[in-house]
Sequence to fold (196 residues):
Amino acid sequence: MIVVLDYGINNIRSVEKAIQFLGFDCRVQDHLGGASKVILPGVGAFNKAMERLEPMRKVICQFANSGNPLLGICLGQQLLFDRSEEFGSTQGLGLIPGQVRYLPPAVGLKIPHMGWSEVAFRPQSLLGKHVAAGDRVYFVHSLYTECAELADVAATTVYGIEFASAVQRGNIWGTQFHPEKSGKVGLQILRNFLEC
Fold:
């Protein structure tokens, strides 16, 4: 069963509707009971999200470490990392080595990064199957993930700097963008995860 994890501060309705549109059954719930795949959506602040997830930390990590597919979206991707510098320093789930940093100011670019940008998937990325060079996806974020290991970067995007816009470490996947709000391209990316 596909579980969209509801931990109280995430935007779950559009993710649920996108999954259903693709013809998959899912359940929105505040626990992982019965899950074979989990999607961790997120909007808001890293530290507040980790406060909400703290009671579930051990179960989430056990789920991921057992080989079950886990996808983090936007803040959900950031939560997969070791720590974030947002509002100080907060420990994350530690499922992907690396940290979350603020996007640096760049001439002519607004922060947060909000809107459509190109995503460049690595050729071997399962998440990027059937996604063409130059395809664009929808972002809303002020921080980005910095992978400690280059092999964990599934896709990059340039917005002032080049950053990891999608990650994959074995069965653990993440997108900094919102596939559920990224039209046909986003739905294909979401399907790639759901069919893994």
